[in-house]
Amino acid sequence: MYGTRVPRRAEEKPNAGGFYDDPAWYDILHTPGTAGEVRGLEMMHERFAPRARTRRWLEPACGTGRYLRVAAARGVRTTGVDLSARMLGYARASFERRGLPGDFIEAGMESFTARTEHHLAFCLINSVRHLMTDRAMLAHLACVFDALHARGVYVLGVSLSDPGYEMPSEDVWKARRGLCEVHQLVNYLPAEGVRGERGRRELVISHLRVTTPTRVRTVDHTYALRTYTPRQWASLLKRAGLTIRAIVDERGDDLPIPAGATDGFDLESLAGRYALYVLARRG
Question: What was the pLDDT predicted at 198?
Answer without folding.
Answer: 72
